[in-house]
Amino acid sequence: MHKRRLVILLAVLLLAALPRFSWAVTVMDDLGRRVTVKGQVRRIVSLYPAHTENLVALGVRDRIVGISQGDDPDLVKGARQLPLRPSPETILSLKPDLVVMRSLQSSMQPQLISQLEGFVPVAVLDPPSFDGLESYVLRLGTLVGRRKEAQAKLKWALGILEESRRRNRGRSLGAVLIVNNRDATTCSPGTWPSRLMEASGLPPAVQGVPTSEGSAVARLGAEGLLAASPKIKVILVQRGPMNPGGLEDFLRDQRFAPMEAVRRGSVFQVDERDVSRPSLMRLQRGLNLLSSIREGAK
């Protein structure tokens, strides 16, 4: 009996001596770095609005303690909104268990990762093309302990996309999304907005536009846009940080006045966040917006 009690006591002492975190997960980020998180992530700093919205979609809104300058502060009330180039001291003052950013942030602040990673895991995940959505969402979900929720959200996203395609099949109108008025740039094939457009019955009418490797936008130019005018039934002009002038500036630009869709009034403004931001939280809203535009197009 005494021997048995001694064994139990030793087992209890061994358990008490175990480190605070008894498990870990590792993912490969988009800089090719192995990022390991030990134990449950309770405090997250997100330096990119799409990461923030996807974290909210995965059910960890209450764990987000720091958000980017471009985030909607009402989405995560109580989280500290950080400047465009936050100092490592500011980030670490929030005592995060995980920092999530995109490679653009590391380009703007080349030393930031090395300044942080000795204190907190830092994952660099870039905005995914639609083909890269599964990898992106699963890695994000794995890091925050929500892999099952990530799988469920992916299934839901693919389901509503397929339902939208089915509903709009046979009623398509060739469209173009103007990402930036000045250079008449549009979305590249396979990107988030191009897939939303296809599923909503507004497939991109202009194909084969040269695109820089890895770029989400392609430069049509005013001449290319005018040349494609007969194929373009609907023009979507996004408004947001990439194109602050939106529809008003597009219609004021006399270069585009000869386009058939402009003359017919088939030009519509869309919120950059709803159409171009790769956000599970906004997916249904983006599909509804584009589908309603297709219904109302002349």
Automatic annotation (TrEMBL):
Residues 1-24 form the signal peptide. GO terms for biological process: cellular response to iron ion. Residues 43-298 form the Fe/B12 periplasmic-binding domain. Keywords: Signal. InterPro entries: ABC_Transporter_SBP, ABC_transptr_periplasmic_BD. This is Periplasmic binding protein. It comes from Thermanaerovibrio acidaminovorans (strain ATCC 49978 / DSM 6589 / Su883).
